[in-house]
Structure formats: C-alpha cells, structure tokens
Design goal:
Elements: E1 3-9, H1 13-23, E2 31-38, E3 41-48, H2 51-60, E4 67-73, E5 88-89, E6 95-103, H3 106-115, H4 127-136, H5 141-151, E7 154-162, E8 169-174, E9 179-183, E10 186-190, E11 202-205, E12 210-215, E13 218-223, E14 234-235, H6 251-257, H7 259-268, H8 286-291, E15 294-299, H9 301-317, E16 322-326, H10 327-330, E17 341-347, H11 353-364, E18 368-373, H12 379-383, E19 386-389, H13 402-422, H14 427-437, H15 440-449, H16 452-461, E20 466-471, H17 474-490, E21 493-498, E22 515-520, H18 526-538, E23 542-548, H19 554-557, E24 560-564, H20 572-590
Parallel strand pairs: 15-16, 15-17, 17-18, 18-19, 20-21, 20-22, 22-23, 23-24
Antiparallel strand pairs: 1-4, 1-10, 2-3, 2-4, 5-6, 6-7, 7-8, 8-12, 9-10, 9-11, 11-14, 12-13
The structure holds fructose -6-phosphate.
C-alpha cells in the first residue's frame, strides 16, 4: 500500500514528483524515494522516514531531469529502510521501478533470477520487477515490460523508466490503483488524483490489465495483449484546496468540519423536481427488488459500522432481510449468496483489497452488487453493477469521518428508494424521513459550533489506560464506531459493548474511575440505558453520556451529558457520532499523536 507519482515532460521531474508524493503520504509514509533519468544515467535518492527526509535532501542536492518516478511506501515485504525504499533498480542501475501492490510469486522469481546471476540488495518483492525488465530489455522498454508482466502474479501498479529509453515512462495497472494525467507540459502517473491536481484535471482512470507508454507529447494505452485501448478522458472536479488542509491543523479536523457540506452534497444533488430521491447510477427496478430475498452488507472498519446502520434502515423501511459481514470474513466463509442476493459494499477508497475480493466472490456466485464509495472510478465502483458515490470529497486523514456520515446518508437514501419502489412505506413516511434528512446538515453544524465539552473530556481521558463505550440498538453501532475512532488515533484501549450484555461478563472490567461513554439517544431504549448507567456508576465508573436534547432523566444519573439535536431515531447516528469523532480527535491531540497518520495504519488498505 503505497503512493506512486511519475512524470515525463518539460518541467523538472523532481519538483512535480515530490509535490505529488506529499499529497499521497496518506497511502504510505515509512519511506520514500525518487529516480530521474538524466544525461545517460538514472539518479536516485531514497530514504527511510517521512517524506520530509527526501524533500530536504533533494532541496540541497537537486536531481535534475525531466523524466522521473517517485514513491512513498508503507512496508509489506521488508522493514522500512533506505535499501527497501523504492525506486528499485537493476544491477547495472539502468532501469528503475516503483510499485504499489504485492508480487505473490516473487520468491520463485527471485530464485530464477539469482540462478541467472542477478544480485538482490533489498528484501522487497518489487526488486524482482527491476531485474525481470532488465532480463527482457533489448532497447524497447515497453516490450520488456510486456514480457515482464507475463511473469508476475499478484497486484501491481508500476512506473518504469530506463536510462536507454530516456524520453518515456511505462506504467502498468493490475489491481492496484493508477491514473494518468494529461497536460501541455507533460504527462503524469499517480496512485490518486490529488497528487497531480496542481498540474492537470484531465485524467484517464486506468482499468485492470492496462499498459501505458507516456512521452512528453502524449500517451498510448494498451491491454496486456498489446491491443490499443481507447479511453475517455475524465475531467476531475475536486479543487486543489479540497485536497489540502484548508487552514485546519489536521486533515481529520478539516474533514470533521466538512461534514455539513458533504452531507448536503450527497443528499440534495439527488432530489428530483418532484422531491423524490433520484439515484442515477442505481438501476435496480421494482421487479429486480422483488426478486431479491436477502441483502448482504459487507465492508471493513468504519465502513462496516456504516453498514450496520444501513441494515437497520433497510430492514425498517424496505423490509428486506439484511445480513452484515466483515469483508475479510465474508470472502472465506463460503457465504450463502445466489442470484437473488444483493451485495452492498461500502468503501470510502473503493480499493480495499478484502472488500474487492468479497465483491468478486459474490459476483462469482451470481449476486448483484451495489457499492457505496467515495472515489469515482475506483476498482470497487467499476466492478459493481450499481454505484452510489458519496461525494464527500477526498478523505485524507487515516481516521474516517466524513466518509462515514455520508455513507449513512447513502444508506438512508438507498433504503427509502427501495422502500418506495417496493411499496413498503407510505408516501407520508417517505417524505417525513426525507424532509428530516434535509435538516441533518445544519444539525451537524450546530454540534460543531461548540466543542468545549469534547475538549475537556479529552483532557480527562488522555492518561487513562482503558475506556468503554456503551449503547443499545443504533446507539450500539455508534458506540462501535466511536470506540474504533478513539483507539486508532489515541492508542487508548477502548471497547464498545451492547449495554444489555454488561451483566453477562463485561461489568467485571468496571472499577473506580473507569471512563464510560454511554450513548442513549434511542427513545425506546433510554430507560434501559439509564439502568445500565446506574449499574456501571455503582461500580465506580465515571459516565459521559450522549443524549437527545429535551431528555431530562440522563443528567440525573450520568456525570456529564453532551446533547444532540432532536431528529428521528433512525437518523440519530449521523448526529451522535459527531461528539465521538471530536473526543477521539482532541484526545489524540492532547497526547501529542500524529492525528492524521497514527502508527501502524494506512489510509487505503489495498493488501489482504
Ligand atoms: C477507520 C478507517 C478504516 C476504514 C477501513 C475501510 O477510521 O478509516 O477502518 O474504514 O479500512 O476502508 P475503505 O472504506 O476505504 O474500504
């Protein structure tokens, strides 16, 4: 899981590449490197550590040249080190390669190459690619790459340059994401759009099994059998500003504050003149829906938590039974899926390896696939039958926030759409829910106006070794998400429990001073939550509650209460998650953690 940038043109490649890599640090940040073709040699710099190490070095020791490739790494094969950093070179240092993905048969290839006399210097899988291209290179770089990829098994996005083919770069996409950018001043490759937005908005989203020859004057695209491919140029609408921090201290905070806008975008651009939801990329007819007897919602992490709320919404409104599963479990569980099953996948990035594998497994079994994703042209979007784009804009912080709330909006819209088509709800209820959804954006805004309570909670929990989240029904799902957010960016051990399960074991963990965040927004369940709060209080817990404005009983039992505005119970997860995001953010900040890049995590998990 790494970021790639490459450039051929009239500019200094180093500047374009380093600037692009900065935008891709969310994909990997344990090491980085650059290789540039210049005056009959390939000059390389690569270092373990954050991109700033490479940046500082190249500022002092510029690498000149107009054709180059760069990489920011998140280690999979071999620990982060200068040697293991990309680009990787052949022994003669005439060919350089950057790679995102995993070469599954690299050990076999390595042995074959070693028997032919090739020397390996790194522990990476990528290095085999440089040597295989060398083995086949006879003056035509593209031809050598075509031959090399026939030997590779696994997932890869590649950028390849050669000293003896100085005016070109070859790029390949198989499974791992890669785009091509086009401009008058030259052409680009990148793992993601923000890397090249300063230079161009015209891009090709490469498909699996495509090879590209980039020259300063233009690009040619081929399939793996060398047939030319005609592709449509997409114009990217995201602003450069949208892809950078926009004045906030961290991407996460910026993205938290972007939620009102993201929710509005996701919702209002899909309402037709008659006030109904219009889902252009979802072709499911009433007849299709009537033939579906089960829905599976499959995703990972935060996206999975959104799916759990999606289940509640679809079952309540569209009356279709829904199962949820974690993608890494689903794919190996021989799931009961057939042509009457609808698989709904949720993925911010649209590139998560396990989610993509679940998609392919379900399709193999005949299921129809609808995906909810934030990235247009992503692998999951392209392989799905129907797509709902969340239009949250780029999410850069590792901790997902605006993607989650827009995924909830997507689920409500899909559920309402299914329900009205199937006739399982009245028009009155349909518009009651939809009208209430339109108020969510401003309600989130009001929650973000004053964050003193969350800041003060963060100060008090920052040194605690554990914390528990409790909830029932939809609040339990929010508790799971709140707990994940806190653990990933504060490193505090937290767990979420269904409050009714407390007395079956968990309550043994509560002792004097244990912080507990109790989410109690669901009208029918507030009474039960009050009993659970009393139970943990009686054992010494300090309880921070999240409740609905106007509710008067919680404050009599909890130590502190954060109130969310009133809305329909089914929609409350959009509001109740906001304080949990802020508690996580301010705790991380108070602990001096790198909020946007917490340890051991990467934004886009494109390996199993
Ligand atoms: C947590 C987080 C992860 C992702 C998960 C799935 O804040 O961001 O749990 O939700 O890795 O990623 P996507 O949605 O890109 O498939």
């Amino acid at each position: 899981m790494c970021g790639i940038v490459g450039y051929v043109g009239s500019r200094q490649a180093q500047n374009v590449i380093i600037e692009g890599l900065e935008k891709l640090e969310y994909r990997g940040y344990d090491s980085s490197g650059i290789a540039v073709v210049h005056e009959n040699s390939i000059n390389t710099a690569k270092f373990k550590g954050r991109l700033s190490v490479l940046d500082n070095f190249t500022k002092e020791n510029p690498i000149t040249g107009n054709v180059g490739i760069g990489h920011t790494r998140w280690a999979t094969h071999g620990a982060p080190s200068d040697i293991n950093s990309h680009p990787h070179l052949n022994n003669k240092e005439t060919i350089a390669v950057v790679h995102n993905g995993i070469i599954e048969n690299y050990l076999t290839l390595k042995e074959e190459l070693q028997s032919k006399g090739y020397q390996f210097v790194s522990e990476t899988d990528t290095e085999v690619i440089a040597h295989i291209v060398d083995y086949y290179y006879e003056g035509d770089l593209m031809e050598a790459v075509f031959k090399a990829i026939k030997k590779l098994k696994g997932a890869y996005a590649l950028g390849v340059i050669a000293k003896d083919s100085p005016g070109e770069m070859i790029a390949v996409r198989k499974e791992s994401p890669l785009i091509v950018g086009l401009s008058e001043d030259g052409n680009y490759i990148a793992s993601d759009v923000p890397a090249i937005l300063n230079y161009t908005r015209d891009v090709y989203f490469l498909d699996n099994g495509e090879v590209v020859r980039l020259k300063p004057s233009g690009v040619e695209i081929f399939d793996f059998d060398k047939n030319p491919v005609d592709k449509e140029v997409h114009t990217v609408e995201w602003s450069v500003e949208a892809a950078t921090k926009g004045g906030y201290e961290h991407f996460m905070l910026k993205e938290v504050y972007e939620q009102p806008q993201a929710i509005k975008e996701t919702l209002t651009r899909r309402i037709d003149e008659d006030g109904y939801i219009k889902l252009d990329d979802i072709k499911l007819s009433a007849e299709d829906l009537n033939s579906i007897n089960k829905i599976y919602i499959v995703a990972c992490g935060t996206a999975y938590h959104a799916g759990k709320i999606g289940k509640l919404a679809i079952e309540k409104l569209a009356k279709i039974p829904v199962e949820t599963d974690i993608a890494s479990e689903f794919r190996y569980s021989d799931p009961f899926v057939d042509k009457n099953t609808l698989l709904i996948l949720v993925s911010q990035s649209g590139e998560t390896a396990d989610t993509l594998a679940a998609l392919r497994e379900a399709k193999r079994k005949g299921a129809r696939v609808l995906s909810i994703t934030n990235v247009v042209g992503s692998s999951i979007a392209r392989e799905s039958d129907d797509v709902f784009y969340t239009w949250a804009g780029p999410e850069v912080a590792v901790a997902s926030t605006k993607a989650y709330t827009t995924q909830l909006i997507a689920f409500y819209m899909v559920a309402l759409n299914m329900a009205i088509k199937k006739g399982t709800i009245t028009k009155e209820l349909y518009f009651e829910v939809l009208d209430e959804m339109k108020t969510l954006s401003s309600k989130v805004e009001s929650l973000l106006e004053n964050v003193d309570a969350e800041k003060s909670i963060a100060e008090r929990i920052k040194d605690k070794s554990s914390l528990f989240y409790l909830g029932r029904g939809a609040d339990y799902q929010t508790a799971l998400e709140g707990s994940l957010k806190l653990k990933e960016i504060s490193y505090i051990f937290t767990e979420a429990f269904a409050a009714g399960e407390l007395k079956h074991g968990t309550i043994a963990l509560i002792e004097e001073g244990t912080p507990v965040v109790a989410i109690a927004t669901q009208k029918d369940l507030v009474g039960k939550m009050i009993s659970n709060i009393k139970e943990v209080k009686a054992r010494g817990a300090y309880v921070y509650a999240i409740a609905t404005e106007g509710e008067t009983e919680i404050k009599k039992v909890a130590d502190e209460v954060i109130y969310i505005p009133e809305t329909l119970d089914i929609l409350k997860p959009v509001l109740s998650v906001i304080p949990t995001q802020l508690i996580a953010y301010y705790t991380s900040l108070a602990k001096g953690i790198d909020v946007d890049k917490p340890r051991n995590l990467a934004k886009s998990v494109t390996v199993e």
